Amino acid sequence: MAAPFVLFGPAHLGVIALTFVTPLILSAITRLCDGSMIAKIVGWLFVALLVVDKILEIILWRRTGELTMESAVPMHLCDWAAIMVVITFVYPNQWTYELWCFWSLGGTLQALLTPDLPYGFPDSRFISFFALHGGVIAAVIYMTFGVGMRPIPTSIMRALAWSAVYLITAMTVNSMLDTNFGYLRAKPPHPSLLNYMAPWPFYIVQLGLLTIAFTLICYLPFFIIDRLGSR
Fold first, then answer.
1. 100 within 8 A of 136, measured Cβ to Cβ
2. Predicted TM-score (pTM) of this structure
3. What are the domain boundaries of the chain?
4. Would you say 105 and 214 are in contact if contact means Cβ atoms under 8 Å apart?
5. Residue 33 φ/ψ, nearest 5 degrees
6. Do 104 and 50 contact (CB within 8 A), yes or no?
7. How many other C-beta atoms can be found within 10 angstroms of the C-beta atom of residue 163?
8. pLDDT tens column, 153-168
9. Per-residue pLDDT averaged across 167-179, rounded?
10. C-alpha angle 120/63/14, rounded to 5°?
């Protein structure tokens, strides 16, 4: 029988620490060595991590008899963020980076801190879950501090516009496949920020407002840096 997941238990805290410490170390190495080659190698390692993890996840769910349309189709916001990671490392560009940046810090971070996951370490489903979510966040930290990419003022409106596209797409797919992508039809069974929100469907409006708030909060450090630099 799989060990139960313990919120903020030793394994959970260890994963959170690795998610933030690892990319900072890699960023320092890249900066000190002034290595574009190092950046490419690290980028391809992140790509390999996310692609292989998704493939293994599907195989794993199939072997355990838990493979469903919801677990197979990449329609959660974290899946979209992971796709942006792959595109950005393969073809570096501002648009996919900024979407991934805002989605990972506004959405994937919530999944990292309050995961909808019943399995604890060392269950392979625990490892797969945090490889994806931790990988997405670690990658954006590395791309920002190691490579030097960052969102710009126009990134805010683009990120919000694409978030609206995700919302409409997820709601459409949910109605067609009877799924719960984006938790737009029901709250997750495990503790999360949604527990403190209004009942369905009213919390969807609150999610929209939180998306705007998180986007602005994520951009705030860059705004402050720009203001201090202009002085």
1. yes
2. 0.93
3. 10-230
4. yes
5. -85, -10
6. no
7. 23
8. 999 999 999 999 999 9
9. 95
10. 20
